[in-house]
Protein backbone atom coordinates (compact mmCIF):
# COMPACT_ATOMS: atom_id res chain seq x y z
CA UNK A 1 0.00 0.00 0.00
CA UNK A 2 2.80 2.44 0.87
CA UNK A 3 4.43 1.77 -2.50
CA UNK A 4 1.14 2.51 -4.29
CA UNK A 5 0.74 5.76 -2.35
CA UNK A 6 4.30 6.73 -3.29
CA UNK A 7 3.61 5.90 -6.96
CA UNK A 8 0.43 7.99 -6.92
CA UNK A 9 2.05 11.05 -5.31
CA UNK A 10 5.24 10.82 -7.37
CA UNK A 11 3.24 10.35 -10.56
CA UNK A 12 0.97 13.30 -9.77
CA UNK A 13 3.87 15.65 -8.99
CA UNK A 14 5.79 14.56 -12.08
CA UNK A 15 2.64 14.78 -14.22
CA UNK A 16 1.85 18.38 -13.23
CA UNK A 17 5.51 19.45 -13.49
CA UNK A 18 6.12 17.78 -16.85
CA UNK A 19 2.86 19.19 -18.29
CA UNK A 20 4.02 22.68 -17.33
CA UNK A 21 7.46 22.14 -18.90
CA UNK A 22 5.93 20.62 -22.03
CA UNK A 23 3.70 23.67 -22.56
CA UNK A 24 6.61 26.02 -21.79
CA UNK A 25 8.89 24.30 -24.30
CA UNK A 26 6.22 23.92 -26.98
CA UNK A 27 5.06 27.53 -26.68
CA UNK A 28 8.62 28.90 -26.73
CA UNK A 29 9.55 26.72 -29.70
CA UNK A 30 6.42 27.84 -31.58
CA UNK A 31 7.29 31.49 -30.90
CA UNK A 32 10.83 30.94 -32.20
CA UNK A 33 9.33 29.45 -35.38
CA UNK A 34 7.49 32.71 -35.90
CA UNK A 35 3.95 31.61 -35.04
CA UNK A 36 1.76 34.47 -33.74
CA UNK A 37 1.14 34.64 -29.97
CA UNK A 38 -2.62 34.50 -30.57
CA UNK A 39 -2.36 31.12 -32.31
CA UNK A 40 -0.03 29.75 -29.61
CA UNK A 41 -2.32 31.01 -26.85
CA UNK A 42 -5.43 29.48 -28.41
CA UNK A 43 -3.82 26.08 -28.96
CA UNK A 44 -0.72 25.08 -26.97
CA UNK A 45 -1.25 27.25 -23.89
CA UNK A 46 -5.01 26.69 -23.77
CA UNK A 47 -4.60 22.90 -23.89
CA UNK A 48 -1.82 22.86 -21.32
CA UNK A 49 -3.96 22.40 -18.20
CA UNK A 50 -5.69 19.39 -19.79
CA UNK A 51 -2.46 17.62 -20.72
CA UNK A 52 -2.59 15.45 -17.54
CA UNK A 53 -6.09 14.20 -18.41
CA UNK A 54 -5.00 13.48 -21.97
CA UNK A 55 -1.99 11.38 -21.03
CA UNK A 56 -3.80 9.57 -18.21
CA UNK A 57 -6.64 8.72 -20.61
CA UNK A 58 -4.19 7.42 -23.20
CA UNK A 59 -2.25 5.37 -20.63
CA UNK A 60 -5.39 3.86 -19.08
CA UNK A 61 -6.85 3.07 -22.51
CA UNK A 62 -3.70 1.30 -23.68
CA UNK A 63 -3.79 -0.79 -20.51
CA UNK A 64 -7.37 -1.82 -21.22
CA UNK A 65 -8.88 0.39 -18.51
CA UNK A 66 -11.42 2.21 -20.68
CA UNK A 67 -13.74 2.94 -17.75
CA UNK A 68 -10.89 4.61 -15.85
CA UNK A 69 -10.17 6.84 -18.86
CA UNK A 70 -13.83 7.78 -19.26
CA UNK A 71 -14.22 8.24 -15.51
CA UNK A 72 -11.23 10.58 -15.54
CA UNK A 73 -12.92 12.80 -18.14
CA UNK A 74 -16.32 12.90 -16.44
CA UNK A 75 -14.86 13.17 -12.94
CA UNK A 76 -12.47 15.96 -13.97
CA UNK A 77 -15.29 18.00 -15.49
CA UNK A 78 -17.37 17.63 -12.34
CA UNK A 79 -14.37 18.46 -10.14
CA UNK A 80 -13.46 21.50 -12.26
CA UNK A 81 -16.86 23.11 -11.71
CA UNK A 82 -17.80 21.94 -8.22
CA UNK A 83 -14.41 21.69 -6.47
CA UNK A 84 -12.18 24.12 -8.39
CA UNK A 85 -14.70 26.88 -9.07
CA UNK A 86 -16.27 26.25 -5.66
CA UNK A 87 -12.98 26.84 -3.85
CA UNK A 88 -12.09 29.77 -6.10
CA UNK A 89 -15.47 31.47 -5.56
CA UNK A 90 -14.85 31.38 -1.80
CA UNK A 91 -12.00 33.85 -2.38
CA UNK A 92 -14.50 36.38 -3.73
CA UNK A 93 -17.09 36.90 -6.45
CA UNK A 94 -15.86 35.87 -9.92
CA UNK A 95 -17.07 38.17 -12.70
CA UNK A 96 -18.00 36.46 -15.97
CA UNK A 97 -17.72 38.21 -19.33
CA UNK A 98 -20.71 38.29 -21.67
CA UNK A 99 -18.71 36.41 -24.33
CA UNK A 100 -18.05 33.52 -21.94
CA UNK A 101 -21.71 33.41 -20.95
CA UNK A 102 -23.05 33.65 -24.51
CA UNK A 103 -20.47 31.53 -26.35
CA UNK A 104 -18.12 29.31 -24.33
CA UNK A 105 -20.54 28.04 -21.66
CA UNK A 106 -23.30 27.09 -24.19
CA UNK A 107 -20.66 25.34 -26.31
CA UNK A 108 -19.52 23.39 -23.24
CA UNK A 109 -23.10 22.29 -22.51
CA UNK A 110 -23.75 21.33 -26.16
CA UNK A 111 -20.49 19.34 -26.32
CA UNK A 112 -21.45 17.56 -23.09
CA UNK A 113 -24.87 16.67 -24.51
CA UNK A 114 -23.28 15.26 -27.68
CA UNK A 115 -20.89 13.12 -25.63
CA UNK A 116 -23.82 11.91 -23.54
CA UNK A 117 -25.68 10.89 -26.69
CA UNK A 118 -22.67 8.82 -27.77
CA UNK A 119 -22.47 7.16 -24.34
CA UNK A 120 -26.18 6.54 -23.76
CA UNK A 121 -26.15 3.11 -25.47
CA UNK A 122 -23.40 1.88 -23.15
CA UNK A 123 -20.80 1.89 -25.93
CA UNK A 124 -18.08 4.24 -27.11
CA UNK A 125 -17.09 3.28 -30.64
CA UNK A 126 -14.03 4.25 -32.66
CA UNK A 127 -16.23 6.21 -35.08
CA UNK A 128 -17.69 8.19 -32.18
CA UNK A 129 -14.17 8.82 -30.91
CA UNK A 130 -13.12 10.26 -34.27
CA UNK A 131 -16.33 12.30 -34.42
CA UNK A 132 -15.55 13.86 -31.03
CA UNK A 133 -12.01 14.62 -32.17
CA UNK A 134 -13.35 16.11 -35.40
CA UNK A 135 -15.71 18.36 -33.44
CA UNK A 136 -12.78 19.45 -31.28
CA UNK A 137 -10.70 20.49 -34.31
CA UNK A 138 -13.72 22.27 -35.81
CA UNK A 139 -14.18 24.17 -32.54
CA UNK A 140 -10.50 25.11 -32.39
CA UNK A 141 -10.72 26.29 -35.99
CA UNK A 142 -13.73 28.43 -35.10
CA UNK A 143 -11.96 29.99 -32.12
CA UNK A 144 -8.91 30.81 -34.23
CA UNK A 145 -11.06 32.22 -37.05
CA UNK A 146 -13.06 34.30 -34.58
CA UNK A 147 -9.89 35.69 -32.98
CA UNK A 148 -8.36 36.53 -36.37
CA UNK A 149 -11.47 38.35 -37.63
CA UNK A 150 -12.27 40.04 -34.29
CA UNK A 151 -12.00 43.79 -34.50
CA UNK A 152 -10.23 43.82 -31.11
CA UNK A 153 -7.59 41.42 -32.34
CA UNK A 154 -4.76 43.68 -31.17
CA UNK A 155 -5.99 43.43 -27.58
CA UNK A 156 -6.13 39.64 -27.83
CA UNK A 157 -2.61 39.62 -29.22
CA UNK A 158 -1.37 41.59 -26.22
CA UNK A 159 -3.06 39.17 -23.80
CA UNK A 160 -1.74 36.10 -25.59
CA UNK A 161 1.73 37.61 -25.91
CA UNK A 162 2.00 37.79 -22.12
CA UNK A 163 1.27 34.05 -21.85
CA UNK A 164 3.95 32.92 -24.32
CA UNK A 165 7.59 32.64 -23.10
CA UNK A 166 9.94 35.24 -24.56
CA UNK A 167 13.66 35.08 -25.24
CA UNK A 168 13.97 31.31 -24.74
CA UNK A 169 16.78 29.78 -26.85
CA UNK A 170 15.52 27.19 -29.32
CA UNK A 171 17.82 24.55 -27.83
CA UNK A 172 16.35 25.12 -24.36
CA UNK A 173 12.80 25.09 -25.72
CA UNK A 174 13.43 21.78 -27.48
CA UNK A 175 15.02 20.36 -24.31
CA UNK A 176 11.90 21.12 -22.21
CA UNK A 177 9.67 19.89 -25.01
CA UNK A 178 11.49 16.55 -25.04
CA UNK A 179 11.50 16.35 -21.23
CA UNK A 180 7.74 16.87 -21.25
CA UNK A 181 7.13 14.33 -24.00
CA UNK A 182 9.19 11.69 -22.14
CA UNK A 183 7.93 12.37 -18.61
CA UNK A 184 4.23 12.91 -19.32
CA UNK A 185 3.43 9.31 -20.32
CA UNK A 186 5.76 7.90 -17.65
CA UNK A 187 4.27 9.98 -14.84
CA UNK A 188 0.74 9.24 -16.09
CA UNK A 189 1.53 5.53 -15.89
CA UNK A 190 2.93 5.90 -12.34
CA UNK A 191 -0.18 7.75 -11.26
CA UNK A 192 -2.57 5.26 -12.83
CA UNK A 193 -0.72 2.28 -11.33
CA UNK A 194 -0.60 3.87 -7.88
CA UNK A 195 -4.26 4.87 -7.96
CA UNK A 196 -5.31 1.43 -9.18
CA UNK A 197 -3.30 -0.27 -6.42
CA UNK A 198 -4.89 1.86 -3.72
CA UNK A 199 -8.40 1.62 -5.14
CA UNK A 200 -8.26 -2.14 -5.66
CA UNK A 201 -7.33 -2.55 -2.00
CA UNK A 202 -10.67 -0.93 -1.20
CA UNK A 203 -12.49 -2.88 -3.94
CA UNK A 204 -13.35 0.17 -6.05
CA UNK A 205 -14.26 -0.21 -9.72
CA UNK A 206 -12.14 1.13 -12.59
CA UNK A 207 -14.80 3.78 -13.21
CA UNK A 208 -14.76 5.05 -9.63
CA UNK A 209 -10.95 5.15 -9.69
CA UNK A 210 -11.12 7.52 -12.64
CA UNK A 211 -13.97 9.57 -11.17
CA UNK A 212 -12.28 10.17 -7.82
CA UNK A 213 -8.55 9.76 -7.17
CA UNK A 214 -7.34 10.36 -10.73
CA UNK A 215 -9.90 13.03 -11.62
CA UNK A 216 -9.10 15.16 -8.58
CA UNK A 217 -5.35 14.77 -9.13
CA UNK A 218 -5.45 15.77 -12.79
CA UNK A 219 -7.60 18.82 -11.94
CA UNK A 220 -4.89 20.39 -9.79
CA UNK A 221 -3.42 22.48 -12.66
CA UNK A 222 -6.87 24.05 -13.12
CA UNK A 223 -7.02 24.88 -9.41
CA UNK A 224 -3.65 26.61 -9.55
CA UNK A 225 -4.64 28.57 -12.67
CA UNK A 226 -8.01 29.64 -11.24
CA UNK A 227 -6.64 30.80 -7.89
CA UNK A 228 -3.86 32.70 -9.66
CA UNK A 229 -6.40 34.32 -11.98
CA UNK A 230 -8.65 35.50 -9.14
CA UNK A 231 -5.74 36.79 -7.04
CA UNK A 232 -4.52 38.79 -10.07
CA UNK A 233 -8.08 40.15 -10.55
CA UNK A 234 -8.24 38.38 -13.92
CA UNK A 235 -11.61 36.68 -13.42
CA UNK A 236 -11.99 35.76 -17.09
CA UNK A 237 -8.82 33.69 -16.78
CA UNK A 238 -10.41 31.62 -13.99
CA UNK A 239 -13.74 30.94 -15.69
CA UNK A 240 -12.20 30.65 -19.15
CA UNK A 241 -9.66 28.10 -17.91
CA UNK A 242 -12.39 25.85 -16.48
CA UNK A 243 -14.77 26.12 -19.44
CA UNK A 244 -11.92 25.62 -21.92
CA UNK A 245 -10.56 22.64 -20.01
CA UNK A 246 -14.00 21.01 -19.84
CA UNK A 247 -14.50 21.53 -23.57
CA UNK A 248 -11.09 20.00 -24.27
CA UNK A 249 -11.81 17.06 -21.93
CA UNK A 250 -15.23 16.20 -23.31
CA UNK A 251 -14.20 16.40 -26.97
CA UNK A 252 -10.48 15.65 -27.29
CA UNK A 253 -9.76 13.56 -24.18
CA UNK A 254 -12.95 11.48 -24.29
CA UNK A 255 -12.11 10.70 -27.91
CA UNK A 256 -8.92 8.90 -26.79
CA UNK A 257 -10.52 5.81 -25.17
CA UNK A 258 -12.96 5.65 -28.08
CA UNK A 259 -10.12 5.54 -30.60
CA UNK A 260 -7.63 3.41 -28.64
CA UNK A 261 -9.94 1.03 -26.78
CA UNK A 262 -13.53 1.23 -28.11
CA UNK A 263 -16.14 -0.95 -26.50
CA UNK A 264 -18.58 -1.33 -23.64
CA UNK A 265 -18.78 1.48 -21.08
CA UNK A 266 -19.81 1.05 -17.43
CA UNK A 267 -23.56 1.73 -17.28
CA UNK A 268 -23.09 4.21 -14.43
CA UNK A 269 -20.89 6.40 -16.63
CA UNK A 270 -23.63 6.89 -19.23
CA UNK A 271 -26.31 7.58 -16.63
CA UNK A 272 -25.32 8.78 -13.15
CA UNK A 273 -21.97 10.35 -14.02
CA UNK A 274 -22.93 11.87 -17.37
CA UNK A 275 -26.02 13.46 -15.84
CA UNK A 276 -23.82 14.85 -13.07
CA UNK A 277 -21.54 16.48 -15.64
CA UNK A 278 -24.52 17.90 -17.53
CA UNK A 279 -26.21 19.11 -14.34
CA UNK A 280 -23.13 20.87 -12.96
CA UNK A 281 -22.37 22.47 -16.35
CA UNK A 282 -25.95 23.73 -16.58
CA UNK A 283 -25.91 24.88 -12.95
CA UNK A 284 -22.89 27.07 -13.71
CA UNK A 285 -24.87 28.85 -16.42
CA UNK A 286 -27.95 29.17 -14.19
CA UNK A 287 -25.97 30.61 -11.27
CA UNK A 288 -24.43 33.26 -13.52
CA UNK A 289 -27.72 34.14 -15.26
CA UNK A 290 -29.54 34.53 -11.93
CA UNK A 291 -26.79 36.63 -10.36
CA UNK A 292 -28.25 39.85 -11.77
CA UNK A 293 -26.44 42.47 -13.78
CA UNK A 294 -23.19 41.59 -12.02
CA UNK A 295 -23.02 38.29 -13.96
CA UNK A 296 -20.76 36.59 -11.44
CA UNK A 297 -20.23 33.55 -9.24
CA UNK A 298 -20.71 34.58 -5.63
CA UNK A 299 -19.39 33.07 -2.40
CA UNK A 300 -22.68 31.28 -1.67
CA UNK A 301 -22.46 29.70 -5.13
CA UNK A 302 -19.05 28.42 -4.11
CA UNK A 303 -20.51 26.86 -0.96
CA UNK A 304 -23.26 25.13 -2.97
CA UNK A 305 -20.74 23.82 -5.51
CA UNK A 306 -18.42 22.48 -2.80
CA UNK A 307 -21.31 20.77 -1.00
CA UNK A 308 -22.32 19.20 -4.33
CA UNK A 309 -18.79 17.90 -4.84
CA UNK A 310 -18.66 16.36 -1.35
CA UNK A 311 -22.10 14.75 -1.78
CA UNK A 312 -21.09 13.29 -5.15
CA UNK A 313 -17.89 11.82 -3.71
CA UNK A 314 -19.84 10.24 -0.84
CA UNK A 315 -22.22 8.63 -3.35
CA UNK A 316 -19.31 7.25 -5.39
CA UNK A 317 -17.54 5.71 -2.41
CA UNK A 318 -20.73 4.06 -1.22
CA UNK A 319 -21.23 2.25 -4.54
Automatic annotation (TrEMBL):
<feature type="transmembrane region" description="Helical">
    <location>
        <begin position="274"/>
        <end position="294"/>
    </location>
</feature>
<feature type="transmembrane region" description="Helical">
    <location>
        <begin position="173"/>
        <end position="192"/>
    </location>
</feature>
<dbReference type="GO" id="GO:0005886">
    <property type="term" value="C:plasma membrane"/>
</dbReference>
<keyword id="KW-1133">Transmembrane helix</keyword>
<protein>
    <submittedName>
        <fullName>Calcium/sodium antiporter</fullName>
    </submittedName>
</protein>
<feature type="domain" description="Sodium/calcium exchanger membrane region">
    <location>
        <begin position="5"/>
        <end position="145"/>
    </location>
</feature>
<keyword id="KW-0472">Membrane</keyword>
<dbReference type="GO" id="GO:0006874">
    <property type="term" value="P:intracellular calcium ion homeostasis"/>
</dbReference>
<feature type="transmembrane region" description="Helical">
    <location>
        <begin position="237"/>
        <end position="262"/>
    </location>
</feature>
<feature type="domain" description="Sodium/calcium exchanger membrane region">
    <location>
        <begin position="173"/>
        <end position="317"/>
    </location>
</feature>
<feature type="transmembrane region" description="Helical">
    <location>
        <begin position="204"/>
        <end position="231"/>
    </location>
</feature>
<feature type="transmembrane region" description="Helical">
    <location>
        <begin position="130"/>
        <end position="148"/>
    </location>
</feature>
<feature type="transmembrane region" description="Helical">
    <location>
        <begin position="300"/>
        <end position="317"/>
    </location>
</feature>
<dbReference type="Pfam" id="PF01699">
    <property type="entry name" value="Na_Ca_ex"/>
</dbReference>
<feature type="transmembrane region" description="Helical">
    <location>
        <begin position="78"/>
        <end position="99"/>
    </location>
</feature>
<dbReference type="InterPro" id="IPR044880">
    <property type="entry name" value="NCX_ion-bd_dom_sf"/>
</dbReference>
<dbReference type="InterPro" id="IPR004837">
    <property type="entry name" value="NaCa_Exmemb"/>
</dbReference>
<dbReference type="InterPro" id="IPR004481">
    <property type="entry name" value="K/Na/Ca-exchanger"/>
</dbReference>
<feature type="transmembrane region" description="Helical">
    <location>
        <begin position="35"/>
        <end position="57"/>
    </location>
</feature>
<keyword id="KW-0812">Transmembrane</keyword>
<dbReference type="GO" id="GO:0008273">
    <property type="term" value="F:calcium, potassium:sodium antiporter activity"/>
</dbReference>
<dbReference type="GO" id="GO:0005262">
    <property type="term" value="F:calcium channel activity"/>
</dbReference>
Amino acid sequence: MLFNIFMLIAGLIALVWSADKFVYGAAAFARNLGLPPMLIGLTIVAMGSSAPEMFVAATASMEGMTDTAIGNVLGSNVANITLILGLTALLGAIAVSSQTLKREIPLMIIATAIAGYFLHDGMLTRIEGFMLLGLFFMLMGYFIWHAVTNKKQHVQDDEDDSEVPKGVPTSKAIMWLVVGIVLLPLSADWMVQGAVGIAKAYHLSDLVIGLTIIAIGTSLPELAACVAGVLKKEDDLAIGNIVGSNLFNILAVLAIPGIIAPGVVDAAASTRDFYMVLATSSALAVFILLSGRARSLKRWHGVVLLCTFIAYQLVLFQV
